[in-house]
Amino acid sequence: MVGNAELVRILCLVLRHEPEIIGIEIDPFGWVEVKKLIDAMNSKGKPIDIRLLEEIVLSDTENLYSFNTDKTKIRANGGHTVSADVKAAPAVPPDILYHGTGVRFIESIKRHGLLKQCRNHVHLSGKYPLAADYGARHGKNTVLKINAKAMHEAGCRFFISENNTWLTEAVPVKYIIF
């Protein structure tokens, strides 16, 4: 029997990174038909139904997933490594944003800044605790402060996703407060 934690992990993997592992495709805007997702998960031995899928989406404190209005489609709100235009809105950021990361990445960040790596954007948070939680996923963590106001004034573009994650192309070293 697959537990909820494993289903959440698989859902994240499928909707953000590797839909092909269960034989589905994400449309250009990140959407997947709920019925196709459920059928594909079940065919791969990952039992899920609409009730459990709704429970996962509603209980997610990071608001990582969204249904369309009639709950026939679902998508991840961001963090994709596959091409998906989730229509994050251009926005003026607050003065300071935060980025949680593993301590082991600090030397590279000091040399190169924050890079999107294989994702579509660098992810930043308006809340220190959320950034700390994210950084904890990488082992021993730290939270970097980002001078978003100065970046924006210098012409860097910011977007805000449905789950209130701030997105930008890169964060040059000079805007990071270590």
Description:
With 178 residues, this protein is α+β, with helices and mostly antiparallel strands. Helices cover 31% and strands 22% of the residues. The chain has a 4-stranded antiparallel beta sheet, with no helix packed on it. The chain has a 3-stranded antiparallel beta sheet with strand order 1-3-2. A hairpin with a 5-residue loop joins strand 9 and strand 10. The radius of gyration is 17 Å and the shape is elongated. The protein folds into 2 domains: 73 residues, Arc Repressor Mutant, subunit A (Orthogonal Bundle); 89 residues, ADP-ribosylation fold, CATH 3.20.170.30.
Question: What is the topology?
Answer:
Elements: H1 4-16, E1 32-33, H2 34-43, H3 50-59, E2 65-67, E3 73-76, E4 89-90, E5 96-102, H4 106-112, E6 114-115, E7 122-124, H5 128-136, E8 141-147, H6 148-153, E9 159-160, E10 166-168, E11 170-171, E12 176-177
Antiparallel strand pairs: 1-3, 2-3, 4-9, 5-8, 6-11, 7-10, 8-12, 9-10
* Total number of strands: 12
- Distance N terminus to C terminus? 44 Å
The neighbouring-strand order within the major sheet is 4-9-10-7
Mean pLDDT: 90
CATH topology description of the largest domain: ADP-ribosylation fold
How would you describe the shape?
elongated
Report the radius of gyration as a whole number of Å. 17 Å
Main beta sheet strand tally, sense and closure = 4 strands, antiparallel
> How many distinct helices?
6
CATH class of the largest domain: Alpha Beta
Low-confidence stretches: none
Give helix and strand order, one letter per element, not per position: HEHHEEEEHEEHEHEEEE
Tally of discrete structural domains? 2
Which class of secondary structure composition applies to the elements?
alpha+beta
Helix content: 25-40%
- Tell me the strand percentage band: 15-25%
CATH architecture call of the largest domain: Alpha-Beta Barrel
